[in-house]
Amino acid sequence: MAMAPTVKVVLGSIAFAIFWVLAVFPSVPFLPVGRTAGSLLGAMLMVVFQVLTPDQAFAAIDLPILGLLFGTMVVSVYLERADMFEYLGKLLSWKSKGPKDLLCRISVISAISSALFTNDTSCVVLTEFILKITRQHNLPPHPFLLALASSANIGSSATPIGNPQNLVIAVQSKIAFGSFVFGILPAMLVGVVVNILVLMCMYWKLLSSAQKDEEDATAEVVADGDVISHRFSPATMSHLTSLNSLEWNSRLESVNMQSSPNMNGQVSHVETLRNRINSTENEIHSDTSGVYESARNSSASKEITNDASYQKRDETVSSRIESMDRLRDLSSMQFSSGDFATKWKRMLWKSCVYLVTIGMLIAFFLGLNMSWTALTAALALVVLDFKDAQPCLEKVSYSLLIFFCGMFITVDGFNKTGIPSALWDFMEPYARIDHAAGIVILALVILVLSNFASNVPTVLLLGGRVAASAAAISAADEKKAWLILAWVSTVAGNLSLLGSAANLIVCEQAHRAPHFGYTLSFWKHLKFGVPSTIIIIAIGVTLIR
């Protein structure tokens, strides 16, 4: 592509530079407006500077990518409501055998969940679980937070729905979902294992000492427990205390609040039972009070007569106690049936959410249109929920969708200047994927550009050019070029804390977590990220087919 006129090149470069600064440094002091506003500002400047016409700007927005991104976000919201991520969090600590076992679990679970539900979602949900577990076991958080963020990035590379740049590649390349997965899966599996080994090597002493401290603390707790466990003295119990009556009424209230609207008949019956119980208790209190008052005022000469009266009243009190117990048992049965119905409906709804998600993944593997499949699954979940969808739809990250719209326009305008084409024309002879040296140079270019300009803009700038260069060799090489771009641009995010959104999400979530706040520093991440990223990328590109 020939270079545009000088004025257009300069103005387009200025617009792209503003977008890049605000995308990489969203809180820059002179204009702290954030990434989303920065992308819109870049897009607007491309039109104002006449690098793009308004029609070209609208045409640059890729609706299939936005549809796929929106659909997967809605599905993730409903999966969170269905406790999917809570179950994943419980898996982290279930029968854990120490810090090293926990590190391996975090790496595997975050990789798998990221491949299926996007890396950003997994990091948002699992960060607080990890902080709670490390606090409970007195473990240093940073090895486990690094395992979460890095494994989430590696795992997300395996599927087109794992991260935004893969969405772009899947739509632009038209590679089938199954072909995409099986092309990168071996590299992803080996990458997760290598990542665990790197973490183990770097933090072996720290994890070992933490495990020893945990064992000592557990021994102390057990020793203390031997003493404390015997400090139990049973309290005296009474059938007719006001406390029992209050507890019973509170239980009635809690069940009434949890009852669904279709249980009005049962609720009214519960009210009747409560009134009968309360009246019975009042009568019993009245009778027993009368008995004791009469006993205090009686004289010795009337003991025989009063004994017969006491016996009769005691029988009355006992019969009323039995009647009240039967009413309580009947009410408990009513409540239990209502709770069972509610739990059964909840379980049925959760099963439907899981089945719809599995159906969406199967449709992806069958080669159906990914955007419309994701949107169909999202709308199916909205209908099955049978409630106002606004609370769930409000959880969708619309700022991310707007960011993508602005980025599409800005990157397309920068492409129109001719600068990316000129740079690629210079690099292409050295970055051909039909020989090992070319693959190494291509991987280095993607690695550097992904950390300099972020991974999604890198894919938008290089994707078509890399694929066209590889297509001149063979169709198989074209597919391989797309997969290498997906692999390297994703794993490159592990190089530094600013390399990917998942890293920043873990850092921010850890810092803001209530009662568990922890700051993951830039240098701690860089110390681990550089060797891990280079080794994993180098091994992975040899396994991509």
Automatic annotation (TrEMBL):
One Gene Ontology CC term in the entry: plasma membrane
This protein's name: Citrate transporter-like domain-containing protein
Keywords (A to Z) from UniProt: Cell membrane, Membrane, Transmembrane, Transmembrane helix, Transport
Organism, as annotated: Populus tomentosa
Predominant location: membrane
Alphabetized InterPro entries for the sequence: Cit_transptr-like_dom
Membrane-spanning ranges: 6-25, 58-81, 175-204, 353-384, 396-414, 435-453, 483-506, 526-544
Subcellular location: Cell membrane
Topology in the lipid bilayer: Multi-pass membrane protein
Residue stretches making up the Citrate transporter-like domain: 26-492
GO process terms (BP): transmembrane transport
